[in-house]
Amino acid sequence: MTALYAWGANSHGQLGLGYVSEQVTSPTRVEELPDHISEPSIRFAVGGGGHTFLLTAQGRLFGAGWNASGQVGNGTQGRAVPVFQLIRGLEGHHVVTVACGWAHSIALSQSGQVWVWGSNSHGQLGLPTEEVPFTSLPISLNLTNVVSVSAGLRHTAVATRDGRAYTWGHGNRGQLGHMDGDGQVVKLQPTPRVVEHVEGKQVMTVACGQSTTYALTGEGQVLAWGDNKWGQLAHDPRNVAFFTCPLTIPHNYFGGHRVLSLRAGWTHCVASVTNGSTYVWGRADYGQLGPSEEEKDDSSSDTAVNEEQSQRLRYIPSKLCINKRIKTVACGSEHNLSIVEESAKENAVYSWGWNEHGNCGDGTTTNVHQPRVISLPGAVRVIGAGSGHSFALLKLT
């Protein structure tokens, strides 16, 4: 039997448990799923500021949670949707991925079409703000052959099959990568615009932090632009506060290996490379980067670890030290989940980082500085995270 478990912030019903609560500190089974969603078919779980989506193998999308701007996409507008509901307006379209900003959503269909809904207060939907201040139903953008989508706090990025990157929305920290005719940062871009400085780089995927944008090229090169307050661009923030023109993250920062995938939290980034290692950088003060290389063998108490982890950031990527094979990582705003291979036949879910709402699932609200196993009643199949909430799909044992 397959079952969905959720934990963390639930102030808008984003866990889909059927009720609203400040926090759920331990994994709790989601019992009230719609009749037309089969738990074994769930392939993807992702959350935004206070809303969540589940995507099935059949390309059907279900949403729950905060809906003040219609970001759940069920055709209504209201404070909370505490149970998962089928997203309206996507009938006949096979959705392959979905991304969430603070209060907006973006989905990609199998045909390469992009659909947006939710708040458009900063042009994050890619539509003129005066015409569409928000929408509770998905609207298709005039983009084709899209292969990757991502959402920041209030900006959006996509990559197309021809290797181009497009961004739109809020750009006050240079996260859009656009300059105006006077050489100034474009702070609001209400419609999709190609990022000129990555032309010819063959961008394959994009990932957005809170106010930072990353692009991964076909050659495994990582480009980054936007906010660098916490070293998110892998450059010293004392020298670079933010940057509009994409910077290349040095190849040797990843041990000389090609980067295969990127995941971004609000102010940190996680990269998986060809030799199986995982690298992390950016903000560190909640423990979201885990222990550094020097601390990985430290067997002292959590209190001592907390003291040692007082550093605020790491701008040079470092290996994530779990000492086991990391299969995948999901990033919340400042916390992470990972599926880790415990043995040839068993996987475990680890969590670490910000834990104010119990989003690390260890039964407490104390930040977690050392990745630790979450106690779950089955074998993990899928993990997902929102800003302060988490999900795991399990095969029960």
From TrEMBL:
<dbReference type="InterPro" id="IPR000408">
    <property type="entry name" value="Reg_chr_condens"/>
</dbReference>
<feature type="domain" description="RCC1-like">
    <location>
        <begin position="4"/>
        <end position="392"/>
    </location>
</feature>
<dbReference type="InterPro" id="IPR051625">
    <property type="entry name" value="Signaling_Regulatory_Domain"/>
</dbReference>
<feature type="repeat" description="RCC1">
    <location>
        <begin position="163"/>
        <end position="219"/>
    </location>
</feature>
<feature type="repeat" description="RCC1">
    <location>
        <begin position="347"/>
        <end position="396"/>
    </location>
</feature>
<feature type="repeat" description="RCC1">
    <location>
        <begin position="220"/>
        <end position="275"/>
    </location>
</feature>
<feature type="repeat" description="RCC1">
    <location>
        <begin position="2"/>
        <end position="58"/>
    </location>
</feature>
<feature type="repeat" description="RCC1">
    <location>
        <begin position="59"/>
        <end position="111"/>
    </location>
</feature>
<feature type="repeat" description="RCC1">
    <location>
        <begin position="276"/>
        <end position="342"/>
    </location>
</feature>
<dbReference type="InterPro" id="IPR009091">
    <property type="entry name" value="RCC1/BLIP-II"/>
</dbReference>
<keyword id="KW-0677">Repeat</keyword>
<dbReference type="Pfam" id="PF25390">
    <property type="entry name" value="WD40_RLD"/>
</dbReference>
<feature type="region of interest" description="Disordered">
    <location>
        <begin position="290"/>
        <end position="310"/>
    </location>
</feature>
<dbReference type="InterPro" id="IPR058923">
    <property type="entry name" value="RCC1-like_dom"/>
</dbReference>
<feature type="repeat" description="RCC1">
    <location>
        <begin position="112"/>
        <end position="162"/>
    </location>
</feature>
<protein>
    <submittedName>
        <fullName>Secretion-regulating guanine nucleotide exchange factor</fullName>
    </submittedName>
</protein>
